[in-house]
Amino acid sequence: MAERGNENEGEDESETEPESGDERELSGVGATPLSGVGFATWYRPDADPDLPEKGGGDDYDPEAERERFENARDRAREEIETERERARERVGESEAEVFDAHVQFLADPQIEDGVLEEIESGYGAERAVQRAFEGPIEQFEGMDGRTAERADDLRDVRDRLLRSLLGRERVDLGDLPEGSVLLAERLTPSDTAQLDPEAVRGFATATGGRTSHAAIFARSLSLPAVVGVGDALTEIEESAEVAIDGEGERVLVSPSAETSERMTRSEAVEIRPEPVMTADGEAIEVAANVGRPAEINGAVERGADGIGLYRTEFLFLGRETPPDEGEQVEVYTEALDAFPEGQVVVRTLDVGGDKAIPYLGLPDEENPFLGERGIRRSLDPDSELFCTQLRALCRAAGEGAGELCVMIPLVASVEEFERATERFEGVLRDLDEEGTAYDRPAFGLMIETPAAAAMAPALAERADFLSIGTNDLTQYTMAADRGNERVAGLHDPHYPAVLRAIRRTVEGAAGTDAWVGMCGEMAGDPDLTELLVGLGIEELSASAVTIPDVKSAVERTNSERAGDLAEQALAAETKAEVIDLIDAGGGVTRRP
Ligand code: PEP
Ligand code: MG
Fold it and tell me: Which domain holds residue 407?
């Protein structure tokens, strides 16, 4: 399958090809490990236009300004609806929901009253809008994590109103010239939802971090992107040749011919759409981790055999109420239809820890990672939500083409999994009694706690599958917060203690019918594929961008030698010894 960066190979050869000495490097944060080369296309949506000052004079007519504001608001609403539809078609229903929040902001009585008060006090409609949005934007900016990102939504709505009042056209991001590298101070959610991934070679923004909307979107669509480049980005001239080096976390301006070729070529990964086997014929499933419907296409395009982890919390985020059963059935069915021959593992809602959903009223806990997380919440405060999700999943299993597996997060005891299973059986009974169509999905759990790894034999007896979540398993085994860079060295799955927990899980499932997969980040590191195959993992699931490399590593693995490597790694006493063993691994899984 042709990759985006290669599509226009040979085209756009600049007539005045720069000398390599002209190449300039700007560093930022890589949103994806991809690279792409194209010409700079600036997006400057006039967020801070030159606005008329306070009206106030004798001829100031607040009534006319009020009317101008109301007309602008109506036009903005229509515009949002059109863009919502386009985003729904291009990226999916869940991404399109960003626009629902915008409609809500437009209709927010507090903001509207603020604008009208400013108009009454003598500010023309443009200034009134700008002033009325200032406070709420600052308020959101002062909040933590994802809530702070609502400030971007508010800016988006404000700028739309201003454009409408000033009669300015919005730059159509859905119609950028082929081969563009989009540059912007910031990209709001509705900007990114308009982008046509077939036309752009990548993007770079001056602001934003790894979890900004722009970065998340880049990952969703496997687009090369570097965010947080800073003011230096603004010095790049329109149409300049630009290389986005996501892996090197930099933007290269006027890249040399050699860099340009390398950055283009590195996209040319070989996609293997078929399932792969080790060199000696052991089938290993390589699946994708996804968090929203828009990521499913990228997973299919990158050759995923299925979905090994569908993080459903993203369906519940960025909205005021949970998705109802019907909406969930649609979303899960869409995922199943994308993999008619494959397996789709959907994880039930995993909130708590660092994932908060305001309308669920999560408690304020001193140690949220050790508190009400995952299944703990689903069994008690969110049990209704849990049953609705299970019902939707069973119904989707009946409707969708692929094979559904339902996965329970953060299990620490056999009792918890038994209680979850009782709920699941209860839901199946209800569906039977009602005569609602469904199919019974496979039912399994994540191994994310040392307790679950220790109890793997009993859990595997009761489950159809176990999937090892190494992000949390490492955090809890090493007592090292996965989000705290001060202990990042300890949050490392190379530690023999983590490897032994993995082995314990695999051995626990041996002799039962349960299969064992892995869906933590460790599964996406091709340098560890040989070790994981050696440890007995049958399914590896990771973000879509890593799939080609992992498949290629599987094909270069010999399972017998992998077994030897695993034995040595399990006997190691330190992380350094494990790393040395992998580095000395004879080049079996090393990239060529
Ligand atoms: C994990 O813990 O490894 C995992 C895959 O779950 P999450 O990263 O969503 O907590
Ligand atoms: Mg986890």
Answer: 278-558
Compute CA distances 11 → 23, 234, 313, 563, whole Å.
20, 26, 42, 47
List, in order, residues 6 or more apart from 57 with CB less than 8 Å away: none
CATH number of the domain encompassing residue 323: 3.20.20.60
Nearest to 543 by CA among 210, 173, 146: 210
What's the pLDDT tens digit per position in 231-281?
A: 999 999 988 999 999 888 999 999 988 888 888 755 556 788 999 999 999
**Is 519 a catalytic site residue?**
yes
453 C-alpha vs ligand 1 centroid, how far in Å? 15
The β-bridge partners of 36 are: 244
Closest-approaching ligand to the CA atom of 541: 1
Regarding whether 544 and 446 lie in a shared domain, the answer is: yes
Ligand 1 center to residue 470 CA distance, Å? Answer: 7
- Residues lying with their CB under 5 A of ligand 2, a single-atom ion: 448, 469, 472
Cα–Cα distance, 75 to 56 (Å, whole number): 26
Q: Are residues 12 and 105 in the same domain?
A: no
Q: Are 124 and 66 in contact (CB under 8 A)?
A: no
Vertex 32: Cα angle to 87 and 446 (nearest 5)? 90
Beta carbons of 503 and 532 less than 8 angstroms apart: no
Options 102, 394, 494, 519, the catalytic residue: 519
Q: Where are the beta strands (DSSP E) in 416-575?
A: 442-447, 465-468, 515-518, 539-543
Mean pLDDT, the chain, rounded, equals 87
Residue that is last in its domain, among 132, 166, 200: 166
Global pTM value: 0.65
> Which whole number is the average pLDDT over 191-215?
78
Contact of 130 with 51, CB cutoff 8 Å? yes
Residue 42 forms beta bridges with which residues? 183
182 and 240 together in one domain: yes
For the record, the structure tokens of 486 come out as: 């001060």
The position carrying tokens 């722009």 is: 214
Total domains present in the chain:
3
Task: Verify that 419 and 470 share a domain, yes or no.
Answer: yes
Residue 270 maps to a domain: no
And the tokens for 376?
């703990």
Q: Confirm or reject: Cβ of 251 under 6 Å from ligand 1.
A: no
The response to whether residue 309 sits with its C-beta less than 6 Å from ligand 1 reads yes
Distance, CA 228 to ligand 2 centroid (Å)? 27
Q: State the number of CA atoms in the 13 A half-sphere of 345 facing the CB.
A: 33
Task: Choose, from 102, 213, 491, 494, the residue flagged as catalytic.
Answer: 213
Residue 47 has pLDDT above 60, yes or no: no
**How far away, in angstroms, is 257 Cα from ligand 2 center?**
43
Output the residue whose Cα is nearest ligand 1's atom 3. 469
Cβ-based neighbours of 134, under 8 Å, separated by 6 or more: none
Cβ of 293 less than 6 Å from ligand 1: no
**475 CB near ligand 1 (under 6 Å):** no
pLDDT of residue 358: 78
Pick from 471, 491, 541 the residue to mutate for probing ligand 1's pocket: most ligand atoms within 8 Å of its CB: 471
Letter for the amino acid at 18? P
Distance 476 CA to ligand 1 centre (A): 12
283 and 256 both lie in a single domain: no
Give catalytic status of residue 213 as yes or no: yes
